[in-house]
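REQUEST ID: PR-0412
SUBMITTED BY: lab tech R.K.
PRIORITY: routine
TASK: structure prediction, single protein chain
INPUT:
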Amino acid sequence: MKTIFPRRTFTAGALALLAALPLASAFAAPFASERISVRTEGSGPDVILIPGLNSSPRTWASTVAALPGYRYHLVHVAGFAGQPAGANKEGAVAAPVAEEIARYIKESNLKQPAVIGHSMGGTIGMMLAARHPEALSRLMVVDMVPFLGTFFAGPGASAARVEAVGDQIAAGMRATPPDQRSKRANDTIAGMVDTEAMRPVAVKDSMESDADVAIRAYRELIVTNLIPELPKIAVPVTVLYVQPKSVPIPAEQFDGVYKAAYALLKHLTIKRIPDSAHFIMWDQPQRFQAEAKAFLGAP
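STATUS: complete
OUTPUT:
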């Protein structure tokens, strides 16, 4: 026997069912930003991966493939590696991006994800951890110091001196003729990536980046001093670093510089990675993956 429900009864039942659903899941809009885009891959505990200056999520491809069992959130900064500049077309880049990642974590209802940042991504990670300590569970910084200005202006340089050096470097970059940009990118990447097969990836990302966004971001990295903010970071921090070939000082002295830079952190694990240039995940993939696995813990 067919049972027919009156339309009024059906409508009331449907409304009651909708009312029982979580409002966020029923009506939540996808995250939208003029400063970053985020792509997710995999399933498991949440991990946010932040690439460096002029880089893309391709930085993490081998790491993601080697370490399944996590839900990776791959950040792509607007203006880098083919992405339109969006809101990064003027002003600071790293600090606003850190705020957008904090908003992404909140609006996506992530429960204190782990964060791994390479180079500029490490700076952004430190900003996030210091300014939104409740947003993440732990942070890995890959080959970045909390105050890059020390390496350019010298130890003990005044803020004004660091600003002047940053302005000078930015001006020099702006003066580079367009026809020399490719050579400069290739020369720079050659010093940052020992693994020749991976250099074209980094060069392509660099050449497809917005030059003005990159210059402003680079200057921002030079002049930003995060050392006073380190005591605000309550989560465990792991730092992996290399000694560039362009810094020919004794290893012990260079180690001392890095350890002193991070001395104010409460929970620090710091490790030198030998036989690698700046892109540790490419030059020493097995070592990097082992360190990342230990940092993340068993999924």
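NOTES: The chain has 13 helices and seven strands.
REVIEWED BY: pending
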